[in-house]
Amino acid sequence: CGMVAIVGRPNVGKSTLLNKLLGQKISITSKKPQTTRHRIMGIHTDGPRQVVFIDTPGLHMEEKRAINRLMNRAAASSLAEVALVVFVVDGMNWTPDDEMVLRKLQSRDDGRKTILAINKVDNIKDKEALFPHLEELSKKFPFDEILPISATQGTNVQRILDMSVASVPESPHYFP
Ligand code: GDP
Known about the structure:
Elements: E1 2-7, H1 14-22, E2 39-46, E3 49-55, H2 66-78, E4 82-90, H3 96-106, E5 113-119, H4 131-140, E6 145-148, H5 157-167
Bound molecules: guanosine-5'-diphosphate.
């Protein structure tokens, strides 16, 4: 199996996206701080390929406290095992925290692919308002793909699923 990480600050729409990707409601209700490096949010199987979608809670914590810095580092190093990172931002609400998460991704780029998913485009009237942010972010990080998405409406969610499946290796133990 291979892992795909859904990364982004709180409220950008990660759980909504995961529900759409998995085509079902999953209930991740715990909002407690996590001590694990990542948690499994769901699994998608497509023939011999199995995608394990993970969340890396530690990446979103502020770095002021030593314990948070440790968790940040653990989360960042857990991304080394990941085949694809889906970095989700809220197209309605860009904040400096997006860049904080991006900086951590950047410090651990081991050749894996990264998609920038600009979410909530269903709510954006003035699409051109996206460009200044886009230009700034893509100058700082070489995204493999930039996708406007709507997690609630499902826009471009299939594309993310296809890229996820393509990024993981085939299982050697697959018998159709
Ligand atoms: P998370 O904290 O990153 O997991 O974010 P959630 O999935 O919990 O979503 C946060 C809020 O954004 C919720 O109120 C969602 O309904 C809303 N939301 C998520 N995706 C979209 C979208 O594509 N369009 C709109 N308009 N709202 C969205």
